[in-house]
Design goal:
The chain is α+β, with helices and mostly antiparallel strands and 130 residues long. It has 2 helices and 7 strands.
Length: 130
């Protein structure tokens, strides 16, 4: 994959790229939105801990497809309040880690999820050579 960040655009606000080119013949994985709920049904109170769980779940899904966070092309995230943005972004940056190619990213503030205690939901597109 190739990051697309034209010099004519303002640099991204955070750790993401404006575009990602996915080459022909690439395997794609699309996750469902992951919520901050553990396998034991517990839900931490903090947005950061919920985001970490979301990314841990995504890591497990990608691993089943033989992929890693380095294969992510796009991240879509949803938080229920602006106050959760920094916590989410910290968890995202820790998940992505240092890399030569940052994925594209969308972050939306939404009114809520299926259960009131959820603060963060994350979904990704990943791609890897076939």
């Amino acid at each position: 994959m190739k990051a697309l960040n034209p010099d004519s655009l303002r640099p991204p606000f955070a750790a993401y790229s404006h575009g990602t080119e996915i080459p022909r013949g690439t395997r794609l994985v699309r996750t469902s939105g992951q919520l901050g709920i553990r396998a034991d049904d517990s839900i931490p109170a903090s947005a950061f801990e919920q985001a970490v769980i979301c990314f841990d779940n995504i890591r497990a899904i990608l691993a089943q497809a033989g992929m890693t966070p380095a294969d992510i092309a796009h991240i879509s995230a949803y938080v229920t309040d602006r106050e959760h943005m920094a916590s989410y972004m910290r968890a995202r940056d820790e998940f992505i880690g240092p890399t030569d190619r940052l994925p594209t990213s969308t972050l939306l503030i939404v009114s809520g999820f299926t259960r009131e205690e959820f603060k963060v939901e994350v979904e990704v597109w990943a791609a890897k050579d076939a």
